[in-house]
Amino acid sequence: SQYAVLLQSIGLLPVDPSTEKDWCGRGQHSEFNKNEKDKIQQILKRQDLLGSTPNAVVESVKCRRILLARKTINCNAKFTREMAIQEVAHLQKLKHLHIIQVVGTYVVHTELAILLYPVADFNLETFMQSLADESMEECLRRIYSPRSSASKETEGSEIIRRCLALLDSFRCLSSAMKHIHDSITKHMDIKPQNILVRKLQQNRPSGLNNAYRVYIADFGIARSYSTYTDSETEGPTMFTRKYAAPEVVDRDRRGLAADVFSMGCVFAEMLAVLAPLRPDGLTRRQAFESVRGSNEYGDSSYQANISQVQEWLLTLVPNTLLNHFPLDLLCPVVVSMISSNPSNRPSAESVATSFGASETCCSDSTEPEPLEATPDEPLWPGYR
């Protein structure tokens, strides 16, 4: 079939039988006729609508008690099946604990559906919004103050788990970005909305420090290359202006360092959530947003406010509530990540080393996690 030929051309077929995820009994990558939609619905039981774009609909579906995200793309002359399948090719190559996994694909007429794991509870943007300023401040005091038996109940609170997860995410995201760049791949759209956060099941021995896990997702405009020299490209491309590196916005020559800039912007926002309250009553994120919008053109993108953001980051060093988190060492790393000159930015490997993730991060291995069946009990309060 045409689909099989396409999959073979990008190395997705044949599939190694020892690793194949045969979700439907027809193989990892399957084809269905238009009159077989009822059969698909029996295999993939639709749960919720997760989001949509002009070209795609994302839903959660349950397959054999495993909750998956199904991204259904309506292929046409402007967005062809050949273009859509590239995301699968990238993810098939990028196997890492903190990168979303492809479980399989299938086609029905003009539609291409990609099955992804896991289904997240948040993206990083909404996860950070869930950490209110007052509770975060109190949370940090409780984490880093001497604990008594009376604090045991507090230690298990959701806000502390989320705070610790955000602290750990610097290492985890650094490790994932290193893996992406080691594979000579550019993500090209790193931003909080493209980083997923999942609450781990409570029956696993995760402890406070591993209650959540982050995943880099949405490789729809990513590009892979044969050599690092080839990864230096120029010309127009899609991008999110707020997080794009200056060379991307200006359509100059850019390479892997553009991803480092975007991740630096994400890290700056994470630090803004973890920063101390201001005496003027502004929340941390409000203060940070005012810094980012302080240029004369009203442009709130990072590339238009690099020096202001860098100066603000360096003021975070005296935060005594984060004495366990070495801001005096790590803020300069983030400052260098958002340098206007790409050659002054550290490599992804250097960033991972700075954040203690040169080999592993939150687990003994960075191999992708096994697929977990959904628990029998209802989803936890606050889901989505």
TrEMBL record:
UniProt biased composition (Polar residues): 341-365
SUPFAM superfamilies according to UniProt: Protein kinase-like (PK-like)
SMART domains recorded: S_TKc
GO terms assigned for molecular function: ATP binding; protein serine/threonine kinase activity
Biological processes annotated in GO: mitotic DNA damage checkpoint signaling
Entry keyword set: Kinase, Transferase
The keyword Kinase appears for this protein: yes
Domain Protein kinase span(s) in chain numbering: 44-355
Region of interest (Disordered), ranges: 341-384
UniProt superkingdom: Eukaryota
Protein name according to UniProt: Kinase-like protein
Species: Lophium mytilinum
